[in-house]
Amino acid sequence: MAGKALCYGELLWDIIDGKPYIGGAPFNLAGHAAKMGCNTWMLSRVGKDDLGRDTLQKVGEIGVHADFLQIDEQRPTGTAIVSLDENKVPVYEFPDNVAYQYIDVDDSVIEKIRGQGIDLFYFGTLIQRNPVARRSVERILEECSFPHVFLDVNIRFNFCDAEVLKNSFAHATIVKLNDDEVKLVGDKLYGCPDEIPLIQSLFDDYGIQIILVTKGKDGCTVYTRDRHEDINECVSKAVDTVGAGDSFSAGFISAYLNGDEVFKAARKGNILSDFVASSHGAIPEYTERLYNRLEAIR
């Protein structure tokens, strides 16, 4: 039976070279997880505008369930202006006061979540820049229980609030960071930017079971409480890396919920990330070569 994942947070359109691509880290993950076979829901908010209507259509086309999507009567659908640096790494500009910043979680939403039998709840740190969205995710974490809680430490604009990090780590069972975020979080919480001390401190201080550190073209390092392993399935030349980290998380989640052990799931995530980095857009059409690479992981 396919796993059930609920993704909370930004649902927006990335504007890359003037062309819109549906995105936002939570939705990038939700879309890839759905394409990889998960039953995936998106909890976010869009405007009552053309982009909002396009969003609802695109969500359905990709295969993500829209039951938890909210319509904001006053604020526009979110966008992100994306430029690529010399390493094809995206740099983002986010307009403020947009719909996804005001996700509303009331009693009816809580009951609906409880009734779905969700296996994994995904949330990130960036969405918590806004106090409304922060209170909403905090309510979900406090009032609902999930077998797995996946935290994406997605630091933008140097938003690295210590209390947000501590509260998020306290609810997480799986954590994903990139190598730059390791340095920022380590320095912020422990006064040490080094990877191994941070990982050990997080295991010591919280109930986290798995920590995933992505490292671009160098793959990733996967940590459990008693083992760690470097994994690198990257063989392609990067075109743009928008959504690559999110696709890694989606590949890992879909494989892990389907019963793969941690390190095998991470290999599949790395393969999916490598494919996305070598393609245009955060959720490109999958190819036969990608499926063959994933199938070859035994």
UniProtKB/TrEMBL annotation:
Pfam family membership, one: PfkB
Keyword flag Kinase: yes
KW Kinase (keyword) present: yes
GO molecular function: kinase activity
Keywords assigned by UniProt, alphabetized: Kinase, Transferase
Sequence ranges assigned to domain Carbohydrate kinase PfkB in this UniProt record: 19-284
Domain of life, source organism: Bacteria
Similarity comment: family membership: Belongs to the carbohydrate kinase PfkB family.
Entries under PANTHER family matching the protein: CARBOHYDRATE KINASE PFKB DOMAIN-CONTAINING PROTEIN (PTHR43085:SF57), HEXOKINASE FAMILY MEMBER (PTHR43085)
Protein's name according to its UniProt entry: Carbohydrate kinase
Gene source species: Solibaculum mannosilyticum
